[in-house]
Amino acid sequence: MNKHRILIVDDSPTIRKAIIRQLSSLDVELLIATNGRQGFDMVHSHQVDLVVTDVDMPQMDGITLCKKLQADHKTNAIPIIIQSSFDTESDIEKGFIAGASAYIPKKELSASLLQTVRSLLQKSSINRSRRVMIVDDSATIRKIVEKGLGKKGFQIMTAENGKVALSRIGDQLPHLILSDIDMPEMDGYAFCRILKENPDLATIPFVVMSARQEMSQVRRMLSIGADTYLFKPFNIDELVMLIEKLLSDQYRFLLMEKERLNTEQKLTVSSIASLVTALEARDAYTSGHSADVARIVSQMGALAGLEPEKVNRLKISGELHDIGKIGVKDAVLLKPGRLTDEEFESIKQHPVTGANILRPIESFADIIDVVQHHHERFDGKGYPYGLKGEAIPFWARMIAVADTYNALTSDRPYRKGMPVEKAFQIIRDVGNTQLCPDCVSLFFKCTEQWSISSAFPDTIYSFPLNDCSQTPQQAHSPFPAE
Q: Quick one: 144 exposed, middle or buried, by C-beta within 10 A (0-12, 13-18, 19+)?
């Protein structure tokens, strides 16, 4: 993401230095102009996200600069902070009439500038990233509102009635809806009701545009689920302030909700990871296995181009993939010799058990299938369901490769872990039968990153896994569970 660019316009070197010092804690790019004329030219030659300007300057003063930027459709969405020693009520009023977003007396600069800049940049970013849908059967209303909101940086969608709006929402979800009530084909009542009955659309702020004499209709809309209303005719600035407040409130709510969910998820993951640690502590051979698998598979996910958040989810999948083994008896899980058919059948249930442990936890919905299918084989001979090829979730196929490598190179009660190169060769050999060839390829790309002076990091393969999920015939096979 590019840094925000702030233009400082002031003829005083002392004030410019003071402003630069105030904004030094922000990760922004600062441009400098020494008068209004130069500032106006720089706004048009650079992409500027915010302007901080003095009032009393040569060639062009700050009030004139503000008016000229506001009058130009290319620059009227840029927030402007006026800072000045002219701080009477009359001076401040002139600044806001000219189009300033904020007016700060110079004596308050050190106390107010930083927070004001942060707030305006956030609001501006919200505006530019937010889509507003205008739903009205009047082409004139749609055009006026679209033009006014477009000047403030909002992305605009339009529709002449609720039916058309619903068809367009399917293509691109709006962040806020402005809707008339009386419209042909589908009026505001039906439109709002359909939105509020759909869980994916119900949280979109819904603003009713109505004539003042229709207050009874407005009350009905509010009872259906509309968030607020605006009487026609309205001032565009009034509309912008209303939208900014609604979106800002929603933005803060979503941030708080995301933080709450993240905290809950971290606590849940920590609790279940403790169970995994307890599981692996049942035998010295199991210590660290899940952590190693998680480490390898997260590297594979990053190489596959997954977003950081997805890589983290994949890592969690690796950490929890064997959680179901907590339901396997010690006599079976820790058995050093051959497993009976009955014992092997009980081992084969651990992916299902793991999925059932995680299923009640809503935040783990995306990793349940990964845990449940990490022992499926690419040729369809795995368990628990015998899925084949791409029917196996991609993340589960990645974990299968990481799991195989760790099992091959780790000690067992019945054998020592094999050398890395031998393990590599076995993985290559089964790269189209037991394992997914694409995931095997990703794995070997990871190993190229491990290799520094031909040395592989011990933390990747030295922690043992007691692989007691073999068939009776394969109790001493180098392969992990089939």
A: middle
pLDDT at 148: 83
Structure confidence at residue 251 (pLDDT): 54
Q: Which helix or strand (DSSP H or E) is residue 8 part of?
A: strand 4-9
Closest CA to 54 of 23, 8, 92: 8
3-state secondary structure at position 310: helix
Q: Is 211 a residue whose pLDDT tops 90?
A: no
- One domain, residues 340 and 230: no
Each residue's pLDDT tens digit, 261-300: 667 667 766 766 676 666 666 655 556 788 899 999 999 9
Q: Return the SS3 of 79.
A: coil
Cβ-defined contacts of 334-341 (< 8 Å, 24+): 334/282, 334/283, 334/413, 334/466, 334/468, 335/468, 336/413, 336/414, 337/414, 337/475, 338/472, 338/473, 338/475, 339/468, 339/470, 339/471, 339/472, 339/475, 340/472, 341/472
Q: Name residue 394's amino acid.
A: F
**Digit-coded pLDDT (tens) for 381-437:** 999 999 999 999 999 999 999 999 998 988 766 567 889 999 999 999 999 899 999
Domain enclosing residue 303, as ranges: 281-474
- What's the mean pLDDT in 68-97? 87
In a domain, 103, yes or no: yes
Report yes or no on 20 lying in a domain: yes
- Complete edge-to-edge strand list for the sheet that includes strand 228-232: 155-159, 131-135, 176-179, 206-211, 228-232
pLDDT band at 465; cut points 50, 70, 90: very low
Q: Does 325 lie in the same domain as 210?
A: no
Same domain, 51 and 62: yes
pLDDT of residue 89: 87
3-state SS assignment for residue 132:
strand
Report how far residue 465's alpha carbon sits from residue 463's, in angstroms, rounded to the nearest whole number: 7
Give CA–CA dist 242/42, Å, rounded: 31
Beta-strand relationship, 131-135 and 80-84: unpaired
399 with 411: CB under 8 angstroms? Answer: no
Q: What is the CATH number of the domain that holds 82?
A: 3.40.50.2300
What's the confidence (pLDDT) of residue 437? Answer: 95
Task: Please say whether the beta carbons of 85 and 125 come within 8 A.
Answer: no
Burial 109-143 (b: 16+ CB within 10 A, else e): beebbbebbeebbebbebbeebebbbbbbeeebbe
What is d(CA 386, CA 139) in angstroms, rounded to the nearest whole number?
Answer: 59
Residue 464 predicted with pLDDT over 50: no
CA 135, 140, 144, 147 torsion: positive or negative?
positive
